[in-house]
TrEMBL record:
Residues 2-337 form the FAD-binding domain. PANTHER family: P-HYDROXYBENZOATE HYDROXYLASE, TRK SYSTEM POTASSIUM UPTAKE PROTEIN. The lineage of its organism: Bacteria, Bacillati, Actinomycetota, Actinomycetes, Kitasatosporales. Pfam families: FAD_binding_3. Keywords: FAD, Flavoprotein. This is 4-hydroxybenzoate 3-monooxygenase. NCBIfam families: PRK08243.1 (NF006091). Coiled coil: none annotated. It comes from the Bacteria.
Amino acid sequence: MGAGPAGLTVGGILRAASVDCVVLETESRQFIETRPRAGVIEEWAVRELGRRGLSERLPERAEAHSACEFRFDGERYRFPYAELTGSRHYVYPQPLLVTDLVREYADVRGGEIRFGVRDVMLHDLDSDRPAVSYRCPRTGERRLLRCDFVAGCDGARGVTRDAIPAHARRIARQDDGIGWLALLAEVPPSTDCVLFGVHPRGFAGQMPRGPELTRFYLQCPPGDDPGNWPHDRVWTELRERLGAAGAPPLTEGRLVEKRVLDMHHYVVEPLAHGRLFLAGDAGHLVAPIAAKGMNLALHDAFLLGDALAACVTKGDGSGLDGYSAACLRRVWDYQEFSQWLSDIYHGVASGDPFRAGTTLARLRRLFTSPTAAAAFAEQYLGTATAY
């Protein structure tokens, strides 16, 4: 269920093991290949994609990043995480990754994707032959697929999570009470790395998405109307919040996307019920504070794809038995780091002088304590949690 990074990665692994599978997707192929989403992939995930033959074009098209930059108190502080860990981030927009994964799964490995499905329902998850039914977009007929397993990779708004009975799951939730105005601008990045602006007016961020496209974020009230942010106001706030001594001016240009994201998180436990296994945002959502969402989805997909292939081809069910626990260890690690980083990003703008003071103390420690810097770098790059 779902043709995002998680579902397509699971499908690609299964097809490589000659396991038959069908991917169901509510949108069209064109839509999923052009939908703007995440853009940062951790090095361990790039390595695992390559090991499975799922990243043929990524090495030559992705931008390798070795540092990020914090701006606070009117100064610039460059954080060279590659020097501390030997690892890097890769900027590779999710539409490019999805395009690669669709091509590999469907066009190269012969996997089947049914696009535009509607009214999806899950059945008999506790049996040996669960099923998924849906309405065909061409004929309007209801169709039923019997299978051995269902991989729920259909995101935060999908149906698979709710197919688990309420008595059989626990959903832990956290609402930060903070909004981010997510912006996509047709401009080149103004620096060679990700920028984090920690400012009394609110957080601001710049994330490169390619040579001529840049993602910006501005802290705003939760539930704010993007219409409250006209072109001039956006660029005025970005200049103010990302301003620092000696910093080059921001490159300004046309905004092609404006939407407000409320910073909230959830984790479903367990990530399995009967023959259904959740992966990615269907099972856990982490706000884009630390760029962890797509990396968690890929981590789930590697574990689930390998476990399903081993069960079907070798009769080894140990991977499926331990799937939920193995995924949740990284999920909770990333959730904790995102909460810590949220405190850093938003503390100065909290209106609480004590919280603002402790926030600045934490930030300065990153640049004065090698131990604090190394711990932050490991968590930021995902190297603190072994695959």
